[in-house]
Amino acid sequence: MKGNQSIIYSDLEPWTFKVTLALSAHQRAKEFQGYHSNPEKAKQVYLNTLAVYAVDFYLDCMGIKTNWSASFSYNPVMQTMMDVADLEIPRLGKLECRAVRSQDSVVCIPMEVLSDRIGYVAVQIDEKLREATLLGFSKTVQESGELAIGELRSLPNLLEAVTPVRQPIQLSKWFDNIFEAGWQSLEALLSTNQANLAFRSSTNLASFRSDMETVKGAKLIEFPVLLPSQSVALLMAITPIAEQKAIVLVQVHPVGTKTLPANLKLSLLASGKTVAEVESQGQYNYIQLKPFRGDSGESFDIQVSLGEASVTETFEF
Fold first, then answer.
1. CB atoms within 10 A of CB 179
2. Model-level pTM?
3. Number of structural domains in the chain
4. Quick one: 145 and 251 in the same domain?
5. Category of 134 on φ-ψ map: left (φ > 0), alpha (ψ -120 to 50) or beta
6. Which of 72, 137, 223, 236 has an alpha carbon 20 to 30 Å from 148's alpha carbon atom?
7. Average pLDDT of 139-149?
8. Which of 162, 186, 212 finishes a domain?
9. pLDDT digits 0-9 by tens, 180-239
């Protein structure tokens, strides 16, 4: 989490996201403001900084990497030359974060930032500068520079725009002990006894062959805002059942504690649609999806979510 003084409030309604503008946010805004003697420019820079801070904080919560220090909005010289509130997204480009007031119905985008942007985020800042609300996102703006707040797209569209497109994880490589970054063999993550308990405690799978033909992968997943001191392990077992076919077992286990957090969801998605889902309740020590089969070349997504935060992995048989 960026700025240990920050507190996050997320509405149940998914279209907005609130961030408390704590001391660390105002300290940075005052620092940048101090470079500018013109009162109007100083105020502009202050509000721009708060808007970028809020978007940066939100993306950090969602696990999206940013590089604010490489942005024009972090550079006092560029602040002087432009009305800029950009946030650099590595390998993708710049996201413009524009502050609006509670009574505004339109976001006014400066001419100098009408191009070379991934998109635009409207950030409503209250009169006392205590809270920022991310209202929505747009990929484009009219040549006039006006963007109607009522026409903004929801924040999931923002996450889609700033999430790098990744190639599916090739499960066939796991049989050669080749794992993508962040993944490892189950045995490398857990002790042998723990590894055996992890999958043998699940339902008996008559369709599975011997353990020698099953490859098991694991990945640690963190939700730093919702679970600051706890992580969970996403475990997968892939077993060939015929030529060009395999069966998959997917589980989530707690790490460092005996039980999973309540309301943690494990989902199977195909073509973006949820086809199976389980949710932890009470004192669950693991959850698992019903085993499913796939043919060579087929792809699917596995998603682990808690509240509005989620981690999605794409796989291909």
1. 17
2. 0.56
3. 2
4. no
5. beta
6. 72
7. 93
8. 162
9. 888 988 877 765 445 444 554 444 433 344 444 889 999 998 887 677 777 899 999 999
Enclosing domain of residue 149: 17-162
Beta carbons within 10 angstroms of residue 130's beta carbon: 12
Within this chain, do residues 192 and 112 fall inside the same structural domain, yes or no? no
Say yes or no: 147 and 248 in one domain. Answer: no
Please count the CA atoms within 13 angstroms of the CA of 40 that sit on its side-chain side.
2
- HEC string of the chain equals CCCCCCCEECCCCCCCEEEECCHHHHHHHHHHHCCCCCHHHHHHHHHHHHHHHHHHHHHHHCCCCCCHHHCHHHCHHHHHHCCCCEEEECCCEEEEEEEECCCCCEEECCHHHCCCCCEEEEEEECCCCCEEEEEEEECCCCCCCEEEHHHCECHHHHHHHHCCCCCCEEHHHHHHCCCCCCCEEHHHHCCHHHHHHHHHCCCCCCCCCCHHHCEEEEEEEECCCCCCCCEEEEEEEEEEEECCEEEEEEEEEEECCCCCCCCCEEEEEECCEEEEEEECCCCCCCEECCCEEEECCCEEEEEEEECCEEEEEEEEC
